[in-house]
Amino acid sequence: MGVSEHQHGYLAAGKKQDHLKRLRRIEGQIRGLQRMVAEEAYCIDVLTQISAATKALQSVALSLLEDHLGHCVAEAVQHGGPEADEKVREASAAIARLVRS
Amino acid sequence: MGVSEHQHGYLAAGKKQDHLKRLRRIEGQIRGLQRMVAEEAYCIDVLTQISAATKALQSVALSLLEDHLGHCVAEAVQHGGPEADEKVREASAAIARLVRS
Amino acid sequence: MGVSEHQHGYLAAGKKQDHLKRLRRIEGQIRGLQRMVAEEAYCIDVLTQISAATKALQSVALSLLEDHLGHCVAEAVQHGGPEADEKVREASAAIARLVRS
Amino acid sequence: MGVSEHQHGYLAAGKKQDHLKRLRRIEGQIRGLQRMVAEEAYCIDVLTQISAATKALQSVALSLLEDHLGHCVAEAVQHGGPEADEKVREASAAIARLVRS
């Protein structure tokens, strides 16, 4: 799936650090879940923690998507032509996967 | 949220290992996501990986929930009384959180 | 999919009227959506209305599911045997469809 | 929420008819659900039908969203300026509501 040059650097440095920080926190939640299962924590508490991790992941996805629409898609649209349509279709397919996951 | 004695051991040993294995794989996906963001992988590829991790988490949740319904909730229902109603309400609330996350 | 006798009457009269009232309101929302599309209302407003109708539908589902767990599944569990396991599996599959839709 | 002139006619005639047809089918599903509840159909069958209607609604939403990104958002982006950013933010908020509903 096309990594072309003008996608590099699409994230402002601050945004990138923010995404990484959130993903490290999610990694911590997943390790916490492993401990909970290993220690046989109460099932409902495990499920609550899974819901929290899922929401945190979706939140990272929505933030990345907003950047993507505002940068890659916007740039392609300004250039116009078939690449613009292709970017809109590609973003729409990614949105559909998020909505259905 | 009440960890009482009869919840311990609600997971057959095989099930527990299976949940742990899946959670370790999800942890690997989250670390992969960090690398992708650090290296500024193409946004759509990051989103695809987030959808995969989200589905994997939900799948662990659904599997835990089925065990919970078949063990903790079933046991409470057999004892009857207010605890049975409470367990059904608690499970329903957890299901609602999953559906909405 | 097994409609057997003891499922009839699983809904208290009040609950049934409440579900019907909510479904009629959702039907009204869907007709409102048709008007919006026919009159080419602003796309974002149409999407907001679709999100509202989706949440309302899920809310009916969660309410029905809680009744089902507290009645049909609880009853089967009290009788025990393979039917109890079957009811738990069937409810779990319905929950999975809700989580994934 | 701003219905401005250039949004009118954002739907090709064929698309509009397609959306209306799908919404009428969903209205039929909701009426079917009312009959099922009135006749006390088996709960799991009602839930299956709710999942189907939910998926159908989301599918209309995703199709409208793709049109919106390809027309309203693309047009605003080509004009540039603060309206472009505003359209991207507005679309992102609508996507977030869909993902969370």
Describe this structure in words.
Four copies of one chain form a homotetramer. Chain A is 82% helix and 0% strand. Chain A has three helices and no strands. The first copy, chain A, has one domain: Methane Monooxygenase Hydroxylase, Chain G, domain 1 (Up-down Bundle). Chain A is elongated. Chain A is mainly α. In chain A, α1 packs antiparallel against α2 and α2 runs antiparallel to α3. The N terminus of chain A is likely disordered. The interface between A and B is large, with 51 and 51 residues.
Overall form of chain A:
elongated
Number of helices of chain A: 3
Structural domains of chain A: how many = 1
Q: Which fold name fills CATH's third level, the topology of chain A?
A: Methane Monooxygenase Hydroxylase, Chain G, domain 1
Major sheet size, sense and barrel closure of chain A:
none
Assign the CATH architecture of chain A: Up-down Bundle
Oligomer: homotetramer
- The structural class of chain A is mainly alpha
Helix content of chain A: over 70%
Structural topology:
The structure is a homotetramer of 101-residue chains.
Chain A: H1 13-38, H2 43-79, H3 81-100
Question: Can you tag this structure with a few keywords?
Answer:
homotetramer, 101 residues, mainly alpha, Methane Monooxygenase Hydroxylase, Chain G, domain 1, 3 helices, elongated, disordered N terminus
